[in-house]
Design a protein that fits this description.
The protein has about 150 residues and is mainly alpha-helical. The protein is built from three helices and four strands. The protein has a two-stranded antiparallel sheet with strand order 1-2. A two-stranded antiparallel sheet has the order 3-4.
Amino acid sequence: MLKGFKNFLMRGDLVTIAVGLVIALAFSTLIKAFTDFVINPIVSRFQGGKSVGLGWQLGEAGNQATYLDLGQFISALIYFIIFIAVVYFLIVVPYKHYQARRGVKAFGEPGPVKTCPACLSEDLPAAASKCLHCASEQPPAPSAVTTS
């Protein structure tokens, strides 16, 4: 039982996912600090005066629970965009390149699909001879027509 668990943990794709997750969490902390201490003050400055941030007070003055803070939303949006860009350019792109050097296609475009005439499932591979959902026979995929 422990040998099977060890084999499960040492699978290459599981280790790759774990390393990617740790790196993503580290970048998340870095980007969160950037948005909290650089972006938030810039966004808050646009409100002007002695306001708490970019937004409106909906209830009594000074009550944080009724303050509509658009600045925090803008900051969270910027954080999300930066985080996704960092994950894509520092994890996904190098991983795709590494896998391509090994002869494996990672994160490729999905192949062509067709619709099953019996159950109307739209996710069948174009070359499928049976439907994944209703097991009905599928017409052969149209082959390339050549002219002589």
